[in-house]
Design brief:
Layout: E1 3-9, E2 14-20, E3 25-29, H1 36-48, E4 52-57, H2 69-76, E5 80-83, H3 87-90, H4 93-101, E6 115-116, E7 121-124, E8 127-133, E9 142-146, E10 151-155, E11 158-159, E12 162-163, H5 173-186, E13 192-195, E14 201-202, H6 203-209
Parallel strand pairs: 3-4, 4-5, 5-6, 10-13
Antiparallel strand pairs: 1-2, 2-3, 7-8, 8-9, 9-10, 11-12, 13-14
The structure holds zinc ion (2 copies).
Length: 213
């Protein structure tokens, strides 16, 4: 069983998730925690539930999903694990911060952790996430998919009744449509999907109601 706790972070209302199982190991997905309050909320949850963070997983390297990297590295010693095609974006997080927020962001976590490819798996506790490459919103955007629990984290590729923008650097409309077509036919319809912004959804609901399909 997975326990999924959502923390809404920063001015972009980004969803950071802490996902744990019965072993009390956990992964942190997309830590966008920017303020002290946001960071304390996540740290308190992990401490109060006796969780042991094993990975910081990053669905893609946009700044709104990475404001909290320093905090996670300092607190738990974890560097962000991300797809290798987003390393270029990762190296320019501070430029992204200036562009999107008007103020800089100096990360001390210059080097990412493990670089991922399509089909890789990331294990924690008695579960694992399969990495499914879904380029389009960014070149290295991924779905994190736990087949045992029919649960997926979609980053900014798929939102409830919508999809991610493709007008940012490295974005590609045709590729995101291709990714969405592929992912919705590959995953079971009762897969619950947790996006990088907004409420959760399911593959079935998106196939029925998402205007982009
Ligand atoms: Zn994004
Ligand atoms: Zn985002």
């Amino acid at each position: 069983m997975l326990n999924i706790k959502k923390f809404v972070c920063n001015m972009f209302q980004e969803n950071c998730y802490v996902v744990s199982d019965e072993t009390n190991e956990c992964v942190i997905i997309d830590c966008g925690a920017r303020s002290e309050t946001e960071r304390n909320g996540i740290a308190d949850y992990i401490r109060d539930n006796g969780l042991k963070p094993r990975h910081l997983l990053c669905t893609h390297a946009h700044i709104d999903h990475n404001f909290g990297n320093d905090f996670i590295f300092t607190t738990y010693g974890l560097r962000p694990t991300l797809h290798k095609a987003d390393v270029c974006l990762y190296e320019r997080l501070s430029e992204q911060a200036v562009y999107f927020t008007g103020s800089g962001y100096e990360s001390s976590v210059k080097q990412p952790g493990t670089l991922l490819e399509d089909g890789d798996t990331v294990a924690f506790g008695c579960h694992e996430f399969k990495i499914i490459s879904t380029p389009g919103h960014s070149p290295g955007s991924v779905f994190l998919y736990c087949s045992d629990e029919k649960t997926a984290f979609s980053g900014d590729t798929l939102f409830r009744m919508s999809m991610g923008r493709t007008d940012l650097e490295g974005g590609d409309y045709d590729r995101i449509i291709d990714s969405l077509t592929r992912i919705t036919s590959a995953l079971p319809e009762d897969t619950v999907v947790y996006p990088g912004h907004g409420p959760k959804t399911s593959i079935r609901d998106e196939k029925l109601m998402n205007p982009f399909f």
